[in-house]
Amino acid sequence: MKPAPRLLIADNMGNITTHPRLKLAADRGGRLFSPDWNELVPLPDESELFFLPGRRAIGLNPSNAKMEIADGLAVAAFAAPGYTLSATPAYAKDEDAPVLPLFAYGSAGYSRGKIWICASRVDEDRRQIFSGVPRGKIEREARRLLKEYPDNRLINHIILNCVREYACPAARNFALGRYEAPLPTSRACDARCVGCISQIQEQGAAKVTPQCRLAFVPTAEEVTEVMRVHASREKVRPVFSFGQGCEGDPLANAGLLRESIELYRSYGGKGTINCNTNASNTEAVAELCDAGLTSLRVSLNSSIPEQYEAYYRPVNYSFDDVRRSIAAARKKGVFVSLNLLYFPGITDTEPELRSLANLCAEGGVSMIQWRNLNIDPGWYQNYMADLAPTSPAMGFNSFARALRESCPWLRYGYFNPWLGERAEIIAPALV
User: Do 115 and 159 belong to one domain?
Assistant: First the structure.
């Protein structure tokens, strides 16, 4: 039997060490526990470790099997794309502790020369791993695109803002001419998410956002040129995605999206055209499907209306509109994914399982993309305390397994899949 990982702690300068005595403890919905090995994976390449200011680490004392506050700050892991975190760090929060930035925070420990995190790998695709890319190649390709397309504002935004300022994985892939190209188009949004990553929200979870929104609205010609450039370089499996972290919701500019899709398809444009969205406008979704959209990825933190609306704080729409948009896309023959913003202890409960299974069945959902909710764990737990189900958490593995038992057609992953121009759908047809 392998020994339990040791607790990681940090000092105020961010120097990380292992605790000499305490073992790893984790938090799932406010319940502290010692993770089993079937919940632990080695820290993936291109992941990061954080120390958490104002939060003293809690570990398990092996001599009495009790939780104990350590003399050191808590340490968290931000997992590489393709991994879903199943537990957050265990810590005791000081009264003056600052709110944490908008990242995902996973529990991490140390054993046998490796750091281990509470997570599951949900996608084998390595499209956002750049360790094998030669140094300097991204910047060389970025300069080439700027030189060849100086008048395209969208290309300039993707390179100057997304590649150089934020090292956005989708933007870097566009620069390299591979996989999925981003198509940011909208400055506006009809949700006021408490964890919005592109605009500071009143009463939101952070006072600083990881990135800023698009400062202009591109033309259909500019959008289509990005698509054609990407398709000329990624000749095998091109994917194009409206709806990126540096913008609001793309349906706010549905007319521009429709014109861009129709224009690209009129040129004989190949590839999967995807829209990442809150899916608030059913009529707009139907129009995009008719224009040539291949897939729709709908973001939600919960399929329970009260929890959804507490996080998204929608303006002039409700969760019923989201349901109708999902069903409308399925009826049009479009592949529907749920961009499920997973949070341990709140997402993985029996009430959520029943609600999510019903949504997938009634809406003809084809895929779950298991994404991590980027938010201060303690802040989110407190914010959702009056709304979250009181039933015990199942854990990620049990929850994912039970959902597939209810909906055996579901595809699991992390990224938008390449589907050709039109997907083959095995999700239930709607009447």
Answer: no
Looking at the structure, tell me whether residues 181 and 261 fall in a common domain.
yes
Q: Are residues 76 and 152 in the same domain?
A: no
Q: Which domain CATH number covers 190?
A: 3.20.20.70
Give the count of domains, the chain.
2
- Do residues 73 and 50 make contact, with C-beta atoms less than 8 angstroms apart? no
Domain interval for residue 86: 6-121
Q: Nearest CA to 158 among 141, 180, 144, 175?
A: 175
Cβ burial of 149 (10 Å; 0-12, 13-18, 19+) is middle
Q: What is the DSSP letter of 100?
A: P
- The answer to whether the predicted template modeling score (pTM) of the entire model surpasses 0.85 is yes
Does a structural domain hold residue 293?
yes
Alpha helices in 9-92 (DSSP H): none
Query: Mean of the per-residue pLDDT values for the chain?
Result: 95
Cα distance between residue 300 and residue 346, in whole Å: 13
pLDDT in tens, 273-308: 999 999 999 999 999 999 999 999 999 999 999 999
Helix (H) or strand (E) holding 120: strand 114-121
Residues linked to residue 84 through DSSP beta bridges, in sequence order: 120
